[in-house]
């Protein structure tokens, strides 16, 4: 067994050793138990801190330490944002390990998740969501990560965001939902994705020229 306790001595969990290969795998399991991202978790064996790549062995007794989020300067916000925007997953990982808040925003609430979603970096989006980034943080002009993923045609990123709690019926600045816009643009692939995750097909437009009208599904799929 692998035994994990807090600094106070309180038992956190025990795991069969054959279920865990490395410290990283153990942190991912502890993330589910503690409700905190793995990036804030540190494991000690005695006085020595273990690295994510360290292998585990039966009979280990480990101490769990939860780190507070680090103070974030504007320079650090820019660094995290730029790394996310460029899809530099290893840099984002290092910064989240400090640990920085994954929603550290710059320039009108542009979060790292927004930047990665906008620029099509699926692995970086997945990493930020693992750090509990908020998929519904909107910019000053009302754009969310899901909206810019949709606008960029990043289907798998949009799917991941929606599966991670992004509002599937979020309205853009014109008052149209993603499903409305997908129908309007004739994007059958996005329409199928949104229908598949139960986007509201009755959500009426609030835009002046289409106010009160529901998404024009019939125009996409005759007979719908």
UniProtKB/TrEMBL annotation:
ANK repeats lie at residues 108-140, 141-173, 174-206. SMART domains: ANK. SUPFAM superfamilies: Ankyrin repeat. PROSITE patterns: ANK_REP_REGION, ANK_REPEAT. Residues 205-224 are annotated as: Disordered. Gene3D superfamilies: Ankyrin repeat-containing domain. Keywords: ANK repeat, Repeat. It comes from the Eukaryota. This is Fem1aa protein. It comes from Symbiodinium natans.
